[in-house]
Amino acid sequence: MATDVQRRDYVPGPAREGRGTQLKAGQRFPCIDIECQQCGDLFAFFRDDVREYQSAEHTSVWNNAIFPRIGEQFVTNRRRPILTFLADDTPGRHDMLVAACDPIRFELGCEGWHASCQENLEEVMAGFGHEEIEIPQPINVFTNIPLDSEGILHQEPALTKAGDSITLRAELDCYVVLTACPQDIVPINAKNPTPLALEIVREVGGDGAS
Amino acid sequence: MTRTEIPARTGWSAALTQGQRFRVIDVQGGQAADLWAFNSADVDEFLSAHHTRVINGEVYPKVDWTFYTNERRPILEFVEDTSPGRHDCLAAACDKVRYEHLGVGSDHGSCEENLQAESRRHGFEVRHAPQPINVFANFRVSPEGSFVLHECVSEPGDAATFEALMDCIIVLSACPQDVVPFQPGGPTDMAVEVFE
User: Fold this and answer.
1) pTM of the model as a whole
2) What is the pLDDT of residue B60?
C-alpha cells in the first residue's frame, strides 16, 4: 500500500529547451509555467514501444472534444489511455491543433539556426536511446490559440501567470517530454520564451514503493 | 482521364506526377473518403494535417487550400469543390481498435487497413495511418469545443478535385464506418477520376 507521503522530483526546463522523464503508470506530474505566458509542447510515448504515442486526433474522437478538458484522457494512436488530465490551475487554454515548431518553420522567418520544439523532443528522446521517432501532434499546454466559428485559428499570447500549472497522470509506463517553446516570432509566448518545469510526484513508503 | 470506381469499404491508390489532378466523387451521396498523400521519393514525408492547419491558420479544408507535408512543403492543392464544402482534417482514420471499441469486432474493415493494403502495393509499410483529409466528412467543432460527427451533406455526384504539387502516391479509402451514423446511407461507393 502506498502511504500519503510524497516525494516530488523537480525537473527544471530552461527557456527554449526540452526535458523529459520516464514515468510509471499511476504517477502524477505537474507542468509549471515558471514566469508567465509560456507555451509548452507536451508529448507522451509508450515506454515499451515508442511508435505508440499520445495522438491528438485519436484523443479528439475519444473525448468528442477538440481542446483538453479536466477529467478526460489522452489516448494513443492505438486508442489506449496514456495520460489523464487531473487538474488545471491556469486560465484553461490549451491546444491540440497546431504542429510543433521545427527547424523548417524557422527557416521561413529568421536567419541561422533557431531552437525548435521538434529538435528539443528529438534530443530528449535520443537521450533515452530512441534516435528515430515519429513527431506527434503535441498537446500544447498553456497555448492560447482559440478557434473561431469559421474555423480560423488565432495565435494569441498565453494567458498563464507565474506558477500556473496543470497536473496529469500517466496511465501507461511512458516517456513524457515537455519543451519550453522557443517561438519568438509569432506572439504565443508574448515574444519572450521563458522556462517551464516538470514535477514528478511519487508516493513513498508502503511495500517498498520508492 | 481515367475513371475508377471504388467499391464501398475499399481503398484505391495511384502514383501521380506533379501537376496531375484527381477528382474524388461521392457516387451516391452521404459518403466520406479518407485521403492521404506520400512523397513518391521519400514516403516518410507525407501530407500532414497538423502542419497544414497551422500554416493555413484554419482547420476546415476548402478550395484554394494548399496541403503541406510534415516537412512543410506543398504536396496537394484543393482546386475545385462541387459539394457543400464540408471536409475534415481533425478526426483520425478509423482502425481495427476503433471497431473493437464500438463492439463490432476486429474483422470489420477500416480506413487504416485500406491504407496499409494500398501502401504495400507501392512497396512501403504504414504502421499507423497519418491524420487523413476526410473528404466530405461533416465534422465540426461546436462553440464550446465539442467535436461533433455530423452527417455528411454531400449529394450524389458531388466531387472534390485536387492537384498534386509534387510527385506523390495518393491513397483513398471509402470509409466503412457503419456504427457511428455520420454516413446516412451507410457505406457506399466512391469514384475517382485521374487527369493526365
Assistant:
1) 0.94
2) 98
Asked if B131 lies within 8 A of A137 by C-beta distance, the reply is yes
A127, A21 Cβ separation under 8 angstroms: no
Quote the percentage of chain B above a pLDDT of 70: 100
pLDDT over 80 at A95, yes or no: yes
- CB contacts of B51 in chain A (<8 Å) are 99
* CA separation for the pair A196, A12 (Å, rounded): 7
Local structure of residue A187 (DSSP, 8 states): G
Q: Does B103 touch chain A (CB under 8 A)?
A: no
Rounded to 5 degrees, φ, ψ at B119 are -65, -35
Instruction: With CA atoms as reference, report the closest residue to B23 among B51, B1, B46, B48.
Output: B1
- Round to whole Å and give the CA distance between A72 and A83: 9
Cβ distance A127 to A160 under 8 Å?
no
Nearest residue of B to residue A96, measured between CA atoms: B50
Average pLDDT of the residues in B135-159:
96
C-alpha cell recorded at residue A64: 468528442
Closest C-alpha to A196, from A48, A80, A90: A90
CA dist., res. A144 & res. A156, Å (int): 6
- Above 80 in pLDDT, residue B13? yes
Mean pLDDT of B131-136: 98
Phi, psi angle pair for A73, to nearest 5°: -105, 150
- The minimal CB distance from B48 to the residues A63, A78, A99 is found for A99
Long-range contacts of A111-114 (CB under 8 A, 24+ apart): A114/A182
DSSP A81-136: EEEEEEEEESS---BSSSPPP-HHHHHTTSSS----HHHHHHHHHHHTT------P
